[in-house]
Amino acid sequence: MIRLVVADDQELVRTGLQLVLQARSCEVVGTAADGQEAIEVVRRTRPDVALMDIRMPVLDGIAATREITAANLPTKVLMLTTYDLDRYVYDALAAGAAGFLLKATPPDRLIEGIRMVNAGESLLAPSLTKRLIEQHLRHPPPTEARLAPVMKLTEREREVLVLMAQGLSNDQIAATLVVSPATVKTHVNRVLAKLGVVSRVQAVVLAYETGLVRPNG
Description:
The chain is of the alpha/beta class. The chain has 2 domains: 3-134, Rossmann fold, CATH 3.40.50; 140-209, Arc Repressor Mutant, subunit A (Orthogonal Bundle), CATH 1.10.10.10. Helix content is 54%, strand content 12%. The chain contains 11 helices and 6 strands. The protein has helices at 11-22, 35-45, 61-70, 86-94, 107-118, 126-136, 144-151, 155-165, 170-177, 181-195, 200-209, and strands at residues 3-7, 27-32, 49-52, 76-81, 99-102, 123-124. It has a 6-stranded parallel beta sheet, with helices on both faces. Helix 4 (86-94) links the parallel strand 4 and strand 5 (99-102). It is globular and about 50 Å long. It starts with a strand and ends in an 8-residue tail after the last helix. The model has no long low-confidence stretch (mean pLDDT 84).
């Protein structure tokens, strides 16, 4: 059973999500009404996944995600928000969020997203992916310091990172490279360690920023 924390400043949303999750065999171990409370609840309960709203009082969801990620807690953060705004998407992923879904997402799709994130996969609402790449990852060529971590990757690790950026799961990468899923998982962990990031999504963002992967192929 996946253990979750729900962070949202609206009590009605928190209650609704809790009912939806519990009806689908998920355990809600805590709730929070602001970002600071979310950090405290996550530290105390150490859930598998935290559903995090973006706009909250005291501390917003992006700042809370950044602190949870920096603390090396085992919790994956899935941003769940009403606001379909590109800047929020990019900032949330850069802060270490494992995924981003809109609150209009159907319950079954939400549960599927939670399971994906809990399994270590990255997740973006399809409507956001193309704009994220095209609008926020176009900038001047990266500096040598920014490129250095990517240069540490082996040829196979770069292949894995490119396939990650294409949205492939570990099983799909394994099938593409004709290796076992366990081997892919090892490669992914090495990629994250060498890049100095904590999530697949952060690794993909870095791949675009450094030019290893480019928009539209």
